[in-house]
């Protein structure tokens, strides 16, 4: 809530600040008290009186003075709600380097202003330029820059936001398959050292090599076993009418007999990526 204080004062149009004597306030508004602590000054006001609310003036960090923001309603904006709202937004949404920003001292505002004007270079580089005097055009500005050079680095909201990192969204953890191309035949240098075997199935029945086209469908080939030597990369196919274990062992025996005719003795058979 806003409260209007009507006090006798000196008319100084060029002054940007209004100095109020606490004794004059207590004389004008009887029944109120003023308390001062380390945080600031509090005018008690009158409980229940909507025109005499409590007022708090915080202590300015740089000057140690008790400061409160005042609002001026001229004839143009006093009866215009939109103009009043605009003025309220201007008073609240102050830039970090604005002169009315009481959270930063003038030296800090000057350091932050040049940091932003120079494309957010480091504060150490800004202070180096201030020490050289190239950024000052008057003696008061030089004194202000001298104070800013001795300040520790301050925070810049744009730089802090720019240093953020994108966090990965939570999800399921996946592990890469360790199998690689040719890993099954690693270190297999001699013929017959290790042989891979697997079945294949054919939905269309195949004629026997000994038949003359009069075999029943149950006696025809329905698949077979494929043998591949890791060292020679030689492939051999044994056709089977059924894919039972007995028929597979018979196919393995026939493959080993074929290998012996060529002077090769299979030592290990690998099936389904596991020894069997």
Description:
The protein is of the alpha+beta class and 276 residues long. The chain folds into 3 domains: 1-74, no CATH class; 106-157, no CATH class; 185-207 and 214-275, 2-Layer Sandwich (Nucleotidyltransferase, domain 5), CATH 3.30.420. The chain is 27% helix and 16% strand. The protein has 7 helices and 8 strands. The strands form 2 sheets. It has a 5-stranded mixed beta sheet, covered by helices on one side. Strands 1-2-3 form a 3-stranded antiparallel beta sheet, with no helix packed on it. The longest helix has 17 residues, at 245-261. It is rod-shaped and about 130 Å long. The two termini are 87 Å apart.
Q: How far is the first residue's CA from the last residue's CA?
A: 87 Å
Outline: rod-shaped
Largest sheet: 5 strands, mixed
CATH topology category name of the largest domain: Nucleotidyltransferase, domain 5
What is the correct CATH architecture of the largest domain?
2-Layer Sandwich
């Amino acid at each position: 809530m806003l409260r209007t204080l009507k006090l006798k004062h000196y008319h100084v149009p060029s002054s940007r600040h209004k100095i109020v004597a606490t004794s004059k306030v207590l004389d004008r508004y009887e029944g109120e008290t003023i308390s001062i602590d380390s945080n600031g000054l509090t005018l008690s006001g009158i409980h229940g009186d909507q025109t005499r609310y409590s007022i708090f003036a915080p202590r300015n960090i740089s000057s140690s003075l008790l400061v409160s923001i005042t609002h001026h309603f001229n004839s143009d904006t006093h009866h215009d709600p939109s103009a009043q709202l605009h003025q309220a937004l201007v008073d609240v949404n102050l830039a970090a380097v604005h002169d009315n920003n009481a959270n930063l001292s003038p030296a800090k505002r000057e350091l932050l202003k040049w940091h932003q004007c120079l494309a957010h270079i480091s504060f150490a580089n800004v202070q180096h330029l201030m020490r050289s005097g190239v950024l000052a055009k008057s003696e008061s500005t030089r004194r202000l820059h001298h104070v800013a050079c001795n300040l520790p680095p301050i925070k810049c909201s744009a730089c802090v936001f720019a240093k953020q990192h994108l966090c990965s969204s939570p999800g399921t953890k996946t592990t890469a398959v360790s199998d690689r191309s040719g890993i099954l035949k690693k270190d297999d240098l001699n013929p017959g050292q290790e042989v891979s075997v697997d079945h294949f199935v054919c939905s269309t029945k195949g004629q026997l090599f000994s038949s003359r086209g009069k075999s029943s469908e149950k006696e025809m080939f329905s698949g077979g076993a494929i043998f591949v030597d890791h060292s020679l990369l030689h492939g051999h196919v044994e056709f089977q009418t059924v894919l039972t274990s007995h028929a597979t062992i018979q196919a393995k025996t026939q493959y080993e007999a074929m290998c012996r005719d060529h002077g090769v003795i299979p030592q290990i058979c690998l099936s389904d990526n596991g020894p069997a």
